Each structure stands twice: as C-alpha cells, then as structure tokens.
Amino acid sequence: MQTVDTFLLLPWYNHHIVFTPEIIYENEDYAVLNKPNGLVVTPGAGHDEIDTLVGWLVSHYGEGIRDACVEGHRPGIVHRLDKDTSGVMVVVKTLDAFHHMVSQFKNRTVKKQYEALVWGNVSETLEEKSHAGIETFEINAPIGRNPRDHTRFAVTRTGKEALTSFTVGKVVTIKDTQFTQMSCMPQSGRTHQIRVHLKSFGHGIVGDPLYQSRSFTHKLVELVKDNDLQDRLYLHAHSLTFIPPGETKEKTFTSPVPWTL
Questions:
Q1: 181 strand-pairing partners
Q2: Which of 88, 112, 123, 175 is placed for a possible disulfide with 255 were both Cys, Cβ 3.0 to 4.6 Å?
Q3: Cβ(201)–Cβ(125) under 8 Å?
Q4: Could you report the per-residue pLDDT of 92-112, keeping only the tens digit for each?
C-alpha cells in the first residue's frame, strides 16, 4: 500500500464558501486529492467552472492543465464523485496521463472502496433473507433514470448493468435508532450506483438528499441538533487502486473516513 505524506493547500475561496482540497500525493503527471463533500467536480447546469473542482485545478495548476483532456472538456478529470460524496480522487496534468487513466477506468481495472453509514441493521435483513452470518454480499441490479422522476436514478429493468459488492461492518445504536457501517466496492460506474443499490436493499445512506425518506430526514435533523451525527451524506471514497502514469505496478491511495461513531 502506498504511504505518502499529506499537506493542505491554502483555502480556495469560492463566493462565501471555503473549499480546501487536500493533496494526498502528486508528481508531474497526476495528483491524488481528498475532495470535500459539497464540492461539484465538473461544470454543468447551475454550476459555473469557478464553482467546481475543475475551476480549482485551473486556478492551482494554471491554464496548461486544459491540455490534459480531449477537446478542452473537463480538464484534468478522469472520473467523478457526486457533489455530496467526499474522498479520494485522481486527477491528471498531461494528455498522456489522461489517456492512461481513462483507459483503466474504461476497462474497470481501477479498484474503488467507499465507506458508508446506512439506516437500519443490515445483518438482521440478511438473516430475514436466510443469509444469517453472511458478512459480504453483492447487489447485481440494472440502474437507469427513475421513470417517475428523471432527476433521480433507480433499479429498473431497462437500466444499464450495475454490480456492487458490500461488506457489513459494525451496527451502532444512537437514541434507539440502529445504523450499520458498510464497505462498498462498485464493480461498475453508474451514476449514484451505491446510493441506489443500498436504497433498493432497504438501507439507504444516512443524509442522502435525493434518496432518503422524509421520516428519516426528520430523524436526522434531530440527531444533528443533538450533535449525534453530522449534517452530510455519509458516503466517503476511502481508497483508490490503479497503475499510475509512467509506472507498471498498482498503488493504493487512501483518505481517512471523516466521521467517528
């Protein structure tokens, strides 16, 4: 496993919000970052470039990073995390590094592990499904646009194939409410894949602004008021394993889980 020193950059001031991306490792070809939750990765509807990670990359590395992409589109970006997901990301600084990393993501050779906190006791659900004692399981279910709400995704028959592996962690109880810590390893890269798969399993991620039920949202508000939980999506990209540009062996980079229970 790659062991590297970390250091913080000077804060990047974006209107009234201060984002401080953390550099986990970098060289002349690529950088591994710890993205804070709340930071949008690429420009799009409602998000100008300056409001995104792309804007931060241009600001920090200069206009030359615009060459690290195809046709000036999303410079430096070879994969994405949702706005509300924090954690480890790799970005590139050259066109050669861009093609090298895009190829690995396309061929699904990059290994990704996320940590999540979900509502309820997952072990009990597995027991009810006659899987008592099981600590690891998979959800293999296609994901597509929700036909009743095109701003969301759902498990649908007409969706694209999606596979996620899960490992059940410890169960914690906070004010009579049970939660389960989960390790999540997506084998494909569908939008909102982990969030949708866990929701379909009956154990949505805590703090999910799109998929959390109204009753759980009200419960979370009370727990946040009492400082029992944070006001955030409890999904964090914990580790990323890939072959760096110019190298032949895999390296793993990690970002510590930003909550304790």
A1: 117
A2: 88
A3: yes
A4: 999 999 999 999 999 999 999
The residue type found at 5 is: D
- Would you mind telling me the total number of residues written for the chain in this entry? 261
Helices (H) and strands (E) in the chain, counts: 5, 14
Q: What are residue 92's DSSP bridge partners?
A: 30
Provide the β-strand partners of residue 70. Answer: 73
Question: Residues 67, 94: contact at Cβ < 8 Å?
Answer: yes
Tokens of 50: 């300056």
Residue type, 259: W
Which domains occur in the chain, in start order?
7-109 (3.30.2350.10), 113-235 (3.30.2350.10)
Which pairing describes strands 86-92 and 235-242: parallel, antiparallel, or unpaired?
parallel
Distance CA 145, CA 66 (A): 31
Q: What is the helix (H) or strand (E) element at residue 87, kind and residue range?
A: strand 86-92
pLDDT band of 18, cuts 50, 70, 90: low
**Tens digit of each residue's pLDDT (9 = 90 or more) over 50-69:** 889 999 999 999 999 999 99
Q: Tell me which residues are annotated as active site.
A: 82
pLDDT by residue (tens digit) across 170-228? 999 999 999 999 999 999 999 999 999 999 999 999 999 999 999 999 999 999 999 99
Of 108, 74, 109, 110, which is closest to residue 92 (Cα–Cα)? 74
Report the alpha-carbon distance of residue 19 to residue 12 in Å, rounded: 5
| Best CA proximity match to 234, nearest among 255, 209, 213 | 209
